[in-house]
Amino acid sequence: MKPTDAIQAALAGEHAAVYVYGVIGGRVSLSAQPDLWSAVRAAYTTHRGRRDQLVAMVRASDAEPVTAEISYELPNPAVTLDQLSGAALEIEQRCSAVYADMVGSTSGANRQWAIDALDDAAVRQLGFGGEPEVFPGISEL
Amino acid sequence: MPSPPSPSPPAALTRRAALAALAAGGTSLVAGCTFGDDRPRRGRRGRRRAAQEVDQDPDIAVAALALAHEESVLDALVATDSRHPRLAGRLAAAIEAHRAHIALLAEAVPEGKAPPEPGALSSPEPTDEPFQVPAKPRAALTRLAVLEQELSVADKRHAFTAQSGSFARLLASMAASASQHAATLEADSTAAAG
């Protein structure tokens, strides 16, 4: 994969993450589920920031950043506490995979960015009920 | 080092090709590729000595360093597991993960190959001293969390410097795994305190 294609794939993943966290955030109650609310809020902020950084990376390589879809399918109905947490976990796992691919397809500062993003997403999974994995972001292992 | 159960790459493969195949490889490289605790190991010092005599593919050198660091963390986990049996349930996942990492990295490091003297690759030097397990379970968990975090930092550096993209991806994933275990062990340590 060309570096720009890998960055665009990560950007597409971030567009989806921002959308899904926006929906989840609207359904989590601050008073009833304060821990999940905080975790979702932090994740939303982080993914928005990453999306903007990826847009800048794509522009720096003289390409046009991929745009967000109008809407995205949620990983599950995202109604119960378990489903909301599970949807967030699924998003972090998908992001881990595109970041891992980006590590393999880039070098220098962009690779370092992807290494750190993969690390953050892997640890963030634990806050949404995920268990430590042997090879986070690498499904074929 | 004893041959792992999975087939070694054919001798005709270059080291880089073997490594790329390894990094891109399928589940067969890991499945069934676990070692017992009694697996004999080369002394790390001996490996380093051997390394000085052979010029190395830079990625093989990185793999050898990562392998030595993984082994030192596994040693600490196994020693802690043995000293504090009631922590066993909390350490099983980390032990399993590091065994899988070691099995994969061992495939990339040819027989008799040793990590270069650390410094150029800025990896903290694993010591040859046996790991001293803290007497209190909570302190033992905290110590392991620190070791996992150090391993993660080193693996991230290795991922940054690796020449092969697929190997970099693998190392970054191992770093993320170590970070997950660091976070889990730290949380367990805090819970043990409460």
Overview of this protein structure:
The complex is a heterodimer of chains A (141) and B (194). Chain A is mainly alpha-helical. Chain A has one domain (3-127): Ferritin (Up-down Bundle). Helix content of chain A is 69%, strand content 0%. Chain A has helices at residues 3-27, 34-60, 81-105, 108-127. The model of chain A has no long low-confidence stretch (mean pLDDT 97). Chain B has one domain: Ferritin, core subunit, four-helix bundle (Ferritin). In chain B, helix 3 (58-83) runs antiparallel to helix 4 (88-108). Chain B has helices at residues 15-24, 44-53, 58-83, 88-108, 137-161, 165-193. Chain B is built from six helices and no strands. Chain B is elongated. By secondary structure, chain B is mainly α. Classes of the chains: A mainly alpha (141), B mainly alpha (194). Chains A and B meet through helix 3 and helix 4 of A and helix 4, helix 5 and helix 6 of B.
SSE layout and pairing:
The complex is a heterodimer of chains A (141) and B (194).
Chain A: H1 3-27, H2 34-60, H3 81-105, H4 108-127
Helix pairs in contact in A: 1-2, 1-3, 2-4, 3-4
Chain B: H1 15-24, H2 44-53, H3 58-83, H4 88-108, H5 137-161, H6 165-193
